[in-house]
Amino acid sequence: MKIVGVGCGPLQITLQAVAVLTEAEVIYGSSRALALAAPYIKPGCDIHTITDYRSLTSPGPETVIVSTGDPMLAGLGYLDGDVIPGISSLCYAAAKLHIRIQNIIVVNAHGRDHTTAIRTAIVELQRNKIIFLLADPAFDTTTLAKNIQSAGLFCEIIICEALGYPEEKFIRGTSESSPIPDNELFSIIISQKE
Prior knowledge:
Elements: E1 2-5, H1 15-23, E2 26-29, H2 31-37, E3 46-49, E4 63-67, E5 82-84, H3 89-97, E6 104-108, H4 114-126, E7 130-134, H5 141-150, E8 155-161, E9 169-174, E10 186-192
Parallel strand pairs: 1-4, 1-5, 2-3, 2-4, 6-7
Antiparallel strand pairs: 7-10, 8-9, 8-10
């Protein structure tokens, strides 16, 4: 089995991933991952849309599972199989915003407990790290900002929306004036301000 990252948005796929997809006979993935992979899937390929990856039973060794972004950044890299990396939202946002990745800590709040994620982010901000927070549509940026303020920190908050898509947008704010996302597909970069 191969787990293939198809990038965080259109055209954010690697040539290695394209090569695997063009040869695949059976492909599984979310509707968004399959849409990103669609231009590279050969006609007649057996395609399966997955809505719950926990219910995925052992697919055959020739199966390709597509994952948005990079499977090793809160993706499907935990599955057994060869992992083909994709261009992650982290790499994409860091490049667009000229932020050096070695200063970034990833905090995953996507489908996870948001309170714990916010606490983790604050601990890392206190260590003067830059946070890349993977959010889900229910993540509340106002609560994030209030918690940062309560910790006595003043931070820049950048919402990174629909990375790689035509509607891509970066919304800047601070812990005192929290930005609000306009799109369900977003991540957040947080850093301390002097």
